[in-house]
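Support case: iron/sulfur cluster complex. Customer-provided input:
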Amino acid sequence: MHFTGQVWRPPFEAHNALLQITAGCMHNKCKFCSLYDGTSFRMSPVSEIEEDLAELRRTYPRAKRVFLTGANPFGLSQDKLITIGTKIKEYLPNVTNFGGFARIADIKRKTQEELNELHALGYDGIHFGTETGDDITLAYMNKGNTAADIVEQLHKLDQAGITYNIVFMNGLAGAGNSERHAIESARIFNQVNPASVNIVALTVFPESELYKDVLTGTYTPTGELEKLIELKTFIENLDIATTINANTVSNTAPFVAELPRDKEAVIKRLQATIDGIDESELVAYRNSIRSL
Ligand code: SF4
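Agent response - structure generated as follows:
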């Protein structure tokens, strides 16, 4: 199999076949992100994709889903996505669907008809690092989209029948901005239909642009207790039926929950953690994290 640089996938994609169709990120400008540090964006040649599909046919013939690697394979042209989707079906007839990460800007470049066509071919289960519904934070972090774009573009996926998962980046707005980030994110996320909302708590890694802002004093990271209070406010204001996955290495109070069923229990548990834990303990944990 061909893999270039860092390969990231959500934890719940662990049992699916991985196929590299892109490496790196076309955007690579989000201030907090160092995920693809040192890896330039690259699209895999079709010949290379076919070699990997032939290998998957030998080693993983019963795969039901293929996870397409890279930060935004959906940034590829419609023709390329159609070619790749057709090849996946040809080599792995048991596969029912395939997907990967995408940027909101990738969807903005696709028409409704193109998205409908991609879904009919098998594209589904797309992951968006939406991070926040707060326009001030989206602009500061160079995400390249507005909160209104999130709603507009994800509605196009709803219309196409493509399911999707989104991210709330806990602590992203910086110290003192938690309430705005939590409430605006819940307000925007309440207008879409994600299969899951994945909570990643921000760790500012030295390789990121954001780290430079911390050093110059332009950006003050959110405290750890403030992050937990922010997460509680976010959950309190989130009124959609979805799965919450807050169980990565970045989460200081990990949990998985179904909303609305578990909402009250999660709020209670977060409050108990907030009441019973010390900032210094949480900071020590955060400082021990080396990678997402
Ligand atoms: S957060 Fe996503 S879109 Fe932004 S630079 Fe990182 S990989 Fe690219």
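Residues 25, 27-30, 33, 35-36, 71, 103, 129 surround iron/sulfur cluster (CB under 6 Å).

Case will auto-close in a few days if no follow-up is received.
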